[in-house]
């Protein structure tokens, strides 16, 4: 089992931000990154679809031969994490917006959360806020279309800039001093978000905490190590349609294969 790769999946390519944190912390591990671009974006899809799709992907990854799974998508976590954990017998690390650490960082008592519509409407997110931030003002800002625009148009595109103008301004006006990046695509535009907030605003990403949690689970399960630092990237869509985006976001050429669970 130690020599098997770690699977990382997202609806698209936002999870590459998590993958980079994982490889930085665990350079000896092999990784298989799967972008379910055939169904991008996840953010506005029904919860029942996301749960069924998440379990289907997880079970297919087990058959492919992986030793752990990272759900590098807040929306998929919100809809399917419990079902995935019940369906497979592997270590599973799932993302969720960093509300808990934000509570310890805010000075104004106002926390902004940028995320997809599906993430913010999920029972999991509501429970997260209720358990850790019920005494604070949490501004849950849905960002429909932002993840897809980052991926398709590019982080520096006018389309993304216009969307950020509309989504970030209410958080700045309300006095939020901590912004939770509740989607793996959003670290690609972290600088642009920071420019739209007052100086000193803290932006929280979850890539590094996820990497630490994965390391702990692998150690506990005696699965740490055994790889050679290899990386494979696959998509359920057309590889030719996403490879330029992968290379732009990753900063170097990565081959992309087709894989359909």
Structure summarized in a few sentences:
The chain has 261 residues and is an alpha/beta fold. Helices cover 46% and strands 17% of the residues.
For the termini, the CA-CA separation is 21 Å
- Spatially, the strands of the biggest sheet line up as 4-3-1-2-9-10
Low-confidence stretches: none
Rg, Cα atoms, Å: 18 Å
- CATH topology of the largest domain, by name, is Rossmann fold
In what range is the share of β-strand residues?
15-25%
In terms of structural class, how would the helical and strand content be classed? Answer: alpha/beta
- Helical residues, percent: 40-55%
Total domains: 2
**CATH classification, class level of the largest domain:** Alpha Beta
Q: Overall 3D geometry? A: globular
Helix count equals 11
Number of strands: 10
Average the pLDDT over all residues and give the rounded result: 95
The CATH level-2 architecture of the largest domain is identified as 3-Layer(aba) Sandwich
Give an account of the 3D structure.
This protein has 261 residues and is an alpha/beta fold. The protein has 2 domains: 142 residues, Rossmann fold, CATH 3.40.50; 106 residues, Rossmann fold, CATH 3.40.50. Helices cover 46% and strands 17% of the residues. The strands form 2 sheets. Strands 4-3-1-2-9-10 form a 6-stranded parallel β-sheet, sandwiched between helices. Strands 6-5-7-8 form a 4-stranded parallel β-sheet, sandwiched between helices. The longest helix has 18 residues. The protein is globular. The two termini are 21 Å apart. The mean pLDDT is 95.
